[in-house]
Design goal:
- This protein has helices spanning 11-24, 34-49, 69-72, 144-147, 165-168, 178-204, 208-220, 290-293, 298-313, 320-330, 341-345, 427-449, 468-477, 486-489, and strands at residues 230-234, 239-242, 353-354, 360-362, 389-391, 394-396.
- By secondary structure, the chain is mainly alpha-helical.
- A two-stranded antiparallel ribbon has the order 1-2.
- A hairpin with a 5-residue loop joins β3 and β4 (360-362).
Length: 491
């Protein structure tokens, strides 16, 4: 069979051709007969023997007949019409790659200063490169859209970088070589400071010059000394690294050649157990690396710790005496009186299980989250908070019925007698005033929607002092933006 001579058609085209043929003559696609397979095999052998010309690709180049079939056969999705090796050659890059100078810039562009709000910019900070919902600045009390002040700088407009395989893995992409100059200048300043400090010390004590010369002479030949077991000797930093065993020492695995003796780890060159357990540690040169760990006061410390654990398990606190002694000597008892751990870390291990509707099935409910505003803060001798009293459309303190904020509380003496209170408005007149106030508000909304140049003007408007019913109706219908119950009143 010729190399790459069998054309492969995509599955979609096969299905399409099959469906079209099924509608025309309802016949299956023809298969190669045994004679066709035999001829293809003879042609392939002839090409390999050199008696038949080699196969030619679409570009007119000969195809080596000795190329294996799994290399010369093109994938089905190439939809080739004849023998080819195009799928084995480097494919041309159809897209245009970004240049080496196109990098992603970080930060904001401080070269442009804007003093006026621009249409389509962020309503919070004024930058035109993002919207209000994407703004990372703290929400302002009055946005830049309304006051036009402190317009933030715009971010850099990032280019769309298209990189190839090597460009995506370039570790120096976007690096500015000028940044290295700052590091060089920093080290140069350090060297200058060291020289000035050394000159000042030599000026104060001239004898130090002879000592420095002696040290330089000693360190001059350190690198040339052959030190067994050392692989790095730095004369300036005086660092030595132990890498190899000194040949004069006996290897640990030679202490006892019995395979059942202590285990020797060749990777870390350690033998923790005693290779000669029958001998006393004082009679042998090496008693295992764990022997040092269990010598001295380590056993006493382990016994004391075990005693403390057993006493704590029986309900006896053995640390009370020492704790009280430390507190009496150094103080700090107030730090021991801390709130529960759940309040300190704002978390708890209590298990709570909820249903799919949000109801608690098992466990306790979470505590109600307190407001971010200060609660139960009494100032100026008041026993109630501001806003606990209401009269005639004015807030006040309930303890003294004072309507002046941050005033000093005088207690019951500040409360007015019932006879001193002004009589309220009548009910019938109040209903009339409420209806009139509703009509006035509707009229005002209608005028606000109109063009200001087309609004009517009434020069005969009566100017008089509003009645008590009209003031009460105005206070009842007035829209209070800071009222926390406003959202419930609107519904």
């Amino acid at each position: 069979m010729a190399a790459g001579s069998s054309s492969r058609v995509p599955i979609s085209m096969l299905l399409q051709d099959k469906s079209s043929r099924a509608t025309e003559d309802d016949e299956e696609p023809k298969k190669k007969s045994r004679e066709d397979w035999r001829k293809a095999k003879e042609l392939e052998e002839a090409r390999k023997a050199g008696t038949a010309p080699a196969a030619v690709d679409e570009e007119g180049r000969d195809i080596n007949p000795h190329i294996p079939q799994y290399i010369s056969s093109a994938p089905w999705y190439y939809n080739t019409a004849g023998p080819t090796l195009k799928h084995q050659r480097p494919q041309e890059e159809s897209r245009e790659l970004s240049g080496i100078d196109e990098v992603v810039s970080a930060g904001v562009d401080t070269s442009k200063s804007v003093t006026k709000f621009r249409k389509g910019a962020c309503e919070n900070c004024g930058a035109v490169t993002h919207k209000k919902k994407d703004c990372m600045e703290r929400p302002r009390k009055v946005g830049a859209k309304f006051n036009g002040g402190k317009i933030a700088y715009d971010e850099f407009v990032q280019p769309k970088i298209v990189s190839d395989y090597d460009g995506k893995r370039d570790r120096w992409a976007g690096y500015d070589p000028a940044n290295h100059r700052e590091i060089v200048e920093e080290y140069q300043k350090i060297e200058v400071a060291k020289r000035e400090l050394r000159a000042q010390k030599l000026k104060e004590n001239p004898d130090l010059a002879d000592e420095e010369e002696d040290e330089e002479d000693e360190d001059k030949y350190v690198d040339e000394v052959d030190m067994p077991g050392r692989t790095k000797v730095d004369s300036k930093q005086r660092i030595t690294v132990r890498n190899l065993r000194i040949r004069e020492d006996t290897a640990k695995y030679l202490r006892n050649l019995d395979p059942n003796s202590a285990y020797y780890d060749p990777k870390t060159r350690s033998m923790r157990d005693n290779p000669n357990p029958n001998l006393h540690p004082e009679e042998t040169d090496f008693a295992g690396e764990n022997f040092v760990r269990y010598s001295g006061d380590i056993q006493k410390h382990a016994q004391a710790q075990l005693f403390a654990w057993e006493a704590h398990g029986k309900g006896v606190d053995v640390h009370d005496a020492s704790k009280n002694k430390v507190v009496e000597q150094y103080g700090g008892e107030e730090h021991l009186q801390v709130p529960p751990r759940a309040l300190l870390l704002a978390q708890t291990e209590n298990y709570v299980e909820y249903s799919r509707f949000g109801k608690i099935i098992k466990g306790e409910d979470k505590p109600i989250i307190r407001s971010r505003y200060e609660e139960d803060v009494f100032v100026n001798n008041h026993t109630t908070v501001w806003g606990s009293f209401w009269r005639d459309g004015v807030w006040g303190y309930k303890c003294c019925e004072s309507t002046i904020k941050n005033s000093y509380c005088v207690g019951e003496n500040g409360k007015s007698e019932p006879s001193d209170q002004v009589a309220g408005p009548s009910r019938d007149k109040l209903k009339v005033a409420l209806r009139q106030e509703e009509r006035n508000q509707a009229r005002a909304e209608q005028l606000l929607k109109m063009d200001e140049r087309k609004r009517p003007y009434n020069s005969m408007f009566e100017v008089r002092e509003p009645t008590q019913e009209e003031m009460e109706a105005f206070q009842m219908k007035r829209c209070r933006e800071d009222d926390p119950m406003r959202q419930f009143m609107d519904k």
